[in-house]
Amino acid sequence: MCAPKQLALRCSVKVSANSKPVDLSTPETAAMLLRVYFRIAAAWGLTTEQEMRLLGASKSLFYKWKSGQVSSGLSPSTLERLSYVSRIYAALQILLPIPERANAWVKAANTAPIFGGASALKRMEGGQVGDLMVVADYLDANRGGDFS
């Protein structure tokens, strides 16, 4: 994984031992990552406002991205947000292998102390990258792993 300073300039990650590195700074990679995000958001039934809040994107930038107009790589903050959303989605697929249940969990009231009776989505909508991290870490801990 790349250090935050490197990420802003140029970073590549190997997907597997036999694959070529993926350059995270290109518009093509950014567009691919955003397509994955929008599919997850659709599976969770998020509103446009919720999608923008989780991405931390302005309205104009969000609509450009949503329409496929990606002209540059993503900021380190956006990459981090996308990483947490992907972690949350993947953990839910493991913990709740029935897709409808996994997707519904995000909006369901939750009695865990970190949610205080509200949904995980409410926590994720807090606006900070850390809000996404808390949910991802919670799910990782519940599936028996510490991957933070």
Count the helices. How many? 8
**Strand order in space, largest sheet:** 1-2
For the report, how would you describe the main beta sheet? 2 strands, antiparallel
Strand content: under 5%
Give the % helix.
55-70%
Order of helices and strands: HEEHHHHHHH
CA-CA gap between termini: 13 Å
* Cα shape: globular
Low-confidence runs: 1-10
Gyration radius, to the nearest Å? 15 Å
Mean pLDDT: 87
Structural class: mainly alpha
* E-strand count: 2
Please, how many domains? 1
Overall description:
The chain has 148 residues and is mainly alpha-helical. The chain has one domain. Helices cover 58% and strands 4% of the residues. It is built from 8 helices and 2 strands. The protein has helices at residues 4-9, 27-44, 48-55, 59-66, 76-95, 99-105, 120-124, 129-142; strands at 12-14, 21-23. The chain has a two-stranded antiparallel ribbon. A hairpin with a 6-residue loop joins strand 1 and strand 2. The longest helix is centred in the middle third of the chain and has 20 residues, at 76-95. It starts with a helix and ends in a 6-residue tail after the last helix. The model is unreliable at 1-10 (pLDDT under 50).
